[in-house]
Amino acid sequence: MQVKENHVVQIDYTLTNNEGQVLDSSNGKQPLAYIHGHGQIIPGLEQALEGKAAGDKLDVTIPAEQAYGEHRPDLVQQVPASAFAGVEKVEPGMRFQAETDQGPIPVTVTAVTDEAVTVDANHELAGQELNFAVKIEAVRAATETELDHGHVHGADGHQQH
Description:
mainly beta; 9 strands; 2 domains; Thrombin, subunit H; 4-stranded antiparallel sheet; 5-stranded antiparallel sheet; 2 helices; Chitinase A, domain 3
């Protein structure tokens, strides 16, 4: 069976950056399961898997614009340090949820002064070309329930993805 829209695909993968550093992997875990064609994985990887079958292996490089997008300077802002009142010590690398008109969004602290905290709402992998080594473990048609719920159901009722 081939990978196509409305099919459940299970993949084992290792994600590396261009320096060869492993950023994420399913090694030692359950394969990643997703419903193909529903935007549950980055667009470039979904395109690369289209038409492949269980047992296929591929190495694919995904440009930033087909992964987590280019780094957007407009998503980096300085906010008053007083916005973090109640936090004992704010340091670069800390992650918070910022409340916006569009709802909460994750931000990462990139710099701290006595007066201001610089936060970045870009995905941590924005602007990076990503390299995937993938093996397709299984492909099957998604059930109506999975399509209605928008996620893969496993033997225990729901599967993380």
